[in-house]
Design a protein that fits this description.
Helix content: 55-70%
Number of strands: 2
Oligomer: single chain
């Protein structure tokens, strides 16, 4: 028994905090991760206050950001950090040497291929995640950044501007980055452990000190009281950081009080399945999935706060004229918990990954864009069968959700009471459907996934197929263009995590 315990908590990272791990009863790799993120928060404040662009050259800011990021992954993952450096340097070689016409293709194949090899080896070595060290997380973020930049370099140096979308033109990179900029963008301490992925031009503007002006200048330009561009003072991120840290504290409390009381694996407990009614099993699935979300909320919100503490993350201003610090936000918690459609849920969950999928796959695929985007998402996540159950199931369920909304929503808009009833029903349906879809993602293996779906009688799959078959296709006539436009818009972000 002791031997099994030692295996379970083994880590390849630093053992410096092992006494703290034993004290709090948390695996050492998780303690190392939180310690690095807390240190990263302090380093971000120092980076903003003492390495300001006004008094520090971009080269120094790039070097410090990259060195701190490299230190973080070596502290957390030990020798496994070499995989990050191999992938980054190999793909930089492609940027330098490959034909600009194919640089995005070669980069995509190499980065996804290397990531997949590492994930396969992790499954074999760690036997479905029993060992606690997971070095694939940073590789997943690096893969997003590397491929996104390769496509943006291709757009800026090869594609004709008229063939690009407005976003592609805005984010196109017109020259190959230097090694220092490439390393800084990919392994900076702000995002190396948990992301999120951000655009290369946004990051370079931040390092060079143009981020605030680039984001808030449009507000000044569009104001009737301004004549041309006026320099904007840099806003303080303190309030935004404190608010996000309070959310993190709430997520931690939720995790220790609620999450551990409702383990996901109980959904496939044979005794529970045989003795509990279908409604009871459905209710437990809902509660256990709700309880599992705060660990993602915590990691993504803390990462967002670290970016903001460094002065990075301004997206513009909200409807009240206040500065919005959500450029690199990865989750909108309130929108997720109150989502009344699959689209609104997806749009608010793992946002930057969804934008990456849209940029490198959905916007560029010539056909079967929805299916291909879900497949890429599954491959990117790893090789556990549960991922493929989740994302392949999401394809027909997504189409069915659109069909239901398209055919029934208009009948509930005539009064406030009807609309309220519609929202309540669609909220419940959305949340239960999300539970059904993502359960394999958390169970990982084939046997528990099939056991869970059997206990649920495959009801969401069956309802989705029937909805696709029986409900009318897109209406014809004057509303056709509007319907097509809405369908395209509803595809903007297609990842379920």
């Amino acid at each position: 028994m002791d031997e099994d315990t030692d295996i379970e908590f083994k880590t390849t990272g630093s053992s410096l905090l092992n006494p703290l791990s034993d004290l709090v009863g948390v695996p050492l790799d998780q303690v190392n991760f939180i310690a690095c993120q807390v240190f990263g928060l302090a380093a971000a404040v120092w980076f903003r206050l003492y390495l300001t662009p006004q008094f520090t050259t971009p080269e120094v800011r790039h070097a410090v950001a990259a060195l701190l990021g490299a230190s973080f992954i070596m502290f957390c993952f030990g020798w496994y950090a070499v995989h990050v450096f191999i992938l980054v340097l190999a793909c930089y070689g492609i940027i330098l040497k490959a034909s600009i016409h194919n640089v995005h293709r070669y980069t995509m194949v190499l980065s996804i291929g290397y990531l997949t090899i590492c994930q396969v080896s992790r499954v074999i070595i760690f036997n479905y995640g029993i060992l606690s060290t997971d070095f694939s997380g940073p590789l997943m973020i690096i893969t997003q950044k590397i491929t996104l930049l390769a496509f943006q370099v291709h757009d800026g140096m090869c594609q004709k501007q008229e063939k690009l979308t407005e976003d592609q033109r805005r984010l196109a990179v017109n020259s190959k980055p230097s090694l220092l900029k490439y390393l800084s963008y990919n392994i900076n301490f702000l995002s190396i452990l948990v992301g999120p992925c951000s655009n290369y031009k946004d990051y370079i503007e931040f390092i060079e000190g143009h981020h605030v002006q680039a984001r808030l200048r449009r507000v000044k330009d569009s104001s009737s009281q301004q004549n041309g561009w006026v320099k904007v003072p840099e806003p303080s991120p303190v309030r935004a950081v404190i608010n996000k840290l309070l959310v993190c504290v709430g997520c931690l409390l939720w995790f220790f009080i609620i999450t551990k009381a409702f383990p996901i694996t109980y959904n496939v407990d044979p005794q529970f399945i045989s003795e509990a009614s279908f409604i009871t099993r459905l209710a437990y699935a809902f509660i256990s999935i709700q309880a599992a979300r705060p660990k993602f909320y915590f990691a993504w919100t803390l990462a967002d706060a670290i970016h903001n503490a460094a002065g990075y993350g301004i997206s513009g201003t909200d409807e009240n004229g206040k500065v919005s610090w959500d450029l690199v936000s990865n989750v909108y918690i309130w929108k997720i918990e109150t989502a009344t459609s699959l689209k609104s849920f997806i749009d608010s969950w793992n946002i930057q990954t969804a934008l990456w999928l849209k940029s490198v796959c959905y916007d560029r695929a010539p056909y079967y864009r929805t299916a291909l985007t879900f497949v890429l998402s599954a491959i990117w996540h790893g090789v556990y069968p549960g991922y493929y159950f989740t994302f392949i199931s999401a394809v027909p369920i997504t189409f069915a959700a659109r069909a239901v909304r398209r055919n029934f929503r208009q009948y509930f808009l005539s009064s406030h009471q009807l609309k309220l009833c519609y929202d309540v029903v669609t909220w419940a349906a959305t949340q239960l459907t999300i539970c059904y879809i993502v359960m394999p993602f958390l169970l990982l293996a084939v046997e528990p996934t099939v056991m869970y779906y059997r206990s649920m009688y495959f009801h969401v799959h069956i309802i989705s197929v029937l909805a696709m078959i029986l409900l009318p296709s897109k209406p014809r006539g004057s509303g056709t263009l509007r319907t097509l436009s809405h369908a395209r818009h509803s595809n903007n972000n297609l990842k379920v995590d």
